[in-house]
């Protein structure tokens, strides 16, 4: 239910300002690791949005509740890869996915930030919501413990395919963690539809950023 009392949090400044010749690189610190993210101004998916900061912070602070060590984790709409990198640092087997045009920057950030770590090597794959799911990720082979999604809901036309994709990967036993900045009525309409398919709990709210963090499991009725 959405009635459980969520925690109210603030997105902490884990961002470390640096004097850098590149305007497009951001430095963060999570789980004791410095993470450098290269953003790209060409694509929506190549900028760090507040939902990614909120989920990264929550995963770092709640490792007992959500222990990612040796778990299989899929991030959909991974964007710059920050959340996938944090999940990797926390010991998960990570598959980061996004649209083809995002993958180059995503792969660059993930390999750059995880290459010297003693962690499971993350994988980067193309995933277009609602398309070729069973061919690319056959249900018989692919089972994830956690699905991570941040700021995947905004003004775009792919909301139904997004919901179908979330439902496809959320098998019984899978936990979906979704952080999103709620700006538009369409965001709340999506949440209503989402709540008909998933058992949904509001874990945390970040009021200054209008971000909600939800935990969901597939309804088995």
TrEMBL record:
Q: Give the top-rank taxon of the lineage listed in the UniProt record for this protein.
A: Eukaryota
Q: Which CDD domains does the UniProt entry name for this protein? A: AdoMet_MTases
Q: What Pfam families does this protein's entry cite?
A: Methyltransf_16
Q: Which processes are annotated in GO (biological process)?
A: methylation
S-adenosyl-L-methionine keyword on record: yes
Keywords, A to Z, come to: Methyltransferase, S-adenosyl-L-methionine, Transferase
UniProt KW Phosphoprotein keyword: no
One GO molecular function term of this record is:
methyltransferase activity
Q: What is this protein called?
A: MT21C methyltransferase
């Amino acid at each position: 239910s959405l009635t459980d009392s969520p925690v109210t949090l603030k997105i902490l400044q884990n961002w470390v300002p640096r004097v850098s010749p590149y305007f497009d690189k951001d430095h963060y610190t999570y789980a004791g690791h410095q993470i450098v993210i290269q953003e790209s101004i060409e694509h929506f998916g190549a900028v760090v949005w507040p939902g990614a900061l909120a989920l990264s912070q929550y995963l770092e602070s709640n490792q007992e509740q959500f222990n990612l060590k040796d778990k299989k984790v899929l991030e959909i709409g991974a964007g710059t890869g920050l959340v996938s990198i944090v999940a990797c640092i926390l010991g998960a087997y990570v598959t980061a996915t996004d649209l083809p045009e995002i993958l180059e920057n995503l792969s660059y950030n993930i390999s750059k930030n995880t290459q010297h770590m003693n962690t499971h090597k993350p994988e980067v794959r193309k995933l277009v919501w609602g398309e070729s799911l069973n061919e690319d990720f056959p249900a018989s082979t692919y089972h994830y413990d956690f699905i991570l999604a941040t700021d995947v809901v905004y003004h775009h036309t792919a909301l139904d395919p997004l919901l179908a994709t979330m439902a496809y990967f959320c098998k019984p036993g899978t936990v979906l963690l979704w952080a999103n900045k709620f700006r538009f009525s369409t965001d709340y309409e999506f949440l209503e539809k989402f709540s008909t398919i998933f058992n949904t709990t509001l874990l945390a709210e970040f009021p200054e950023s209008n971000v909600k963090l939800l935990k969901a499991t597939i309804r088995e009725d």
